[in-house]
Amino acid sequence: MSASTTPPFNPADPLGIDDLLAPEDLAVRDTVRSWAADRVLPHIADWYECGELPGVRELARELGSLGALGMSLTGYGCAGASAVQYGLACLELEAADSGIRSLVSVQGSLAMYAIWKFGSEEQKQQWLPRMAAGEVIGCFGLTEPDHGSDPAGMRTYAKRDGSDWVLSGRKMWITNGSVAGVAVVWARTDDGIRGFVVPTDAPGFSAPEIKHKWSLRASITSELVMDDVRLPQDAVLPEGTGLRGPLSCLTHARYGIVWGALGAARSSFEAALEYAKTREQFGKPIAGFQLTQAKFADMAVELHKGLLLAHHLGTRMDAGTLRPEQVSFGKLNNVREAIDICRTSRTILGANGISLEYPVMRHATNLESVLTYEGTVEMHQLVLGKALTGQDAFRG
């Protein structure tokens, strides 16, 4: 290619990653970006400061109309989008706020995916079309107060009583819990771990909201309390046996995080870049100083390497060749680098970086939760360590 036909350098896409995307991919990205700019960005600082997500049911219906709920699933009113398109949607949602992406991830990749993958045809018909439309919000109950990284130790228990099941226990840190119409709850039974589809209006079920959070403040987080919740026989997910069920759901959701975390990083990077071009010290914009440029160069390298990694994993998921260890690779790298980008961006903004007038500190504190949920850094390191060495170090 001659110099005259070489495309100009694009600071927003320095590696030309957009060239890897089909027109349909770009259309999904631009549609979600436009929605977030209109419906989230004007309000998100106030929502975060107040620690609430007002109008969540209306937002869910709007996201449903966009096809963003369960978008990579097929049938039952789901969009049937590609994995790359789902990833791009997660990227744009988290560029607005991690809490909005969490709403979509838990709805589609955890609650809906569990029913779609392991449910009966009756369960799918009953719940998935309404969840895809955002008419019913779902949540996913796996983590417990004393069992996070080791879900096999869960205490929530379901026992048979005639033809019914009776479910008792507690789940903790559950996104969407207080506004959900249906919960997918994992419990021990005499036959091992099973998943249950639990209508949240069932007697004995409650979901008190968790307050006083310093992260994911514009997200609804709850405890689930099951006090002898009686369920019919057909509430159990027929194909969801053992930990294979919930762990496969988590793999699907972690894939969205691989993309989403980079949305928070991109938003922080862009805010810092614009600030540096106009903020003057010692007679010129701070963007003109070598140390500031070094920060931008390092951040851009990690951000766009992460995007290449996310796209690669997306193409593997679309081809049916993506392994859980590879998703761990992506979450470990991209969330860790995204937090570092947010922190570095904050240093460029100086004291202004802690203000909600800018998105940087909000993204940084949100990512502290993203770093932990759906597998801590240590868990993903051990997943990769086991895959690389063949030795299981999970139990010391």
UniProtKB/TrEMBL annotation:
Residues 139-229 form the Acyl-CoA oxidase/dehydrogenase middle domain. The keyword Transit peptide applies. Keywords: FAD, Flavoprotein, Oxidoreductase, Transit peptide. One of its GO terms (molecular function) is glutaryl-CoA dehydrogenase activity. GO terms for biological process: fatty acid beta-oxidation using acyl-CoA dehydrogenase; fatty-acyl-CoA biosynthetic process. InterPro entries: Acyl-CoA_Oxase/DH_mid-dom (IPR006091), Acyl-CoA_Oxase/DH_mid-dom_sf (IPR046373), AcylCo_DH-like_C (IPR036250), AcylCo_DH/oxidase_C (IPR009075), AcylCoA_DH/ox_N (IPR013786), AcylCoA_DH/ox_N_sf (IPR037069), AcylCoA_DH/oxidase_NM_dom_sf (IPR009100), Glutaryl-CoA_DH_mitochondrial (IPR052033). Residues 240-388 form the Acyl-CoA dehydrogenase/oxidase C-terminal domain. The keyword Mitochondrion does not apply. Residues 23-135 form the Acyl-CoA dehydrogenase/oxidase N-terminal domain. Its cofactor is FAD. Belongs to the acyl-CoA dehydrogenase family. This is Acyl-CoA dehydrogenase.
